Write the structure tokens for this entry.
Amino acid sequence: MTRDPADLTAADYLDGAREMTAADRPYLAHLLAEEAAQRTTDPATAAGIRAAFPDPTTTRTGTD
């Protein structure tokens, strides 16, 4: 089922972020969570969302 992205809610984006986390797709999870945070009016809730899905490119540890 195709949906209009304008109709999606923060909860829809969070569901997608959780699905991407379960599928081991952390960057996509982060992007979806960021969209959810932007659609949230409460700054504390938005900060919690961002903390739960950190940007994997900044938290990656290198191995040489």
Observations:
- Residues 1 and 8 are 13 Å apart (CA to CA).
- The mean pLDDT is 89.
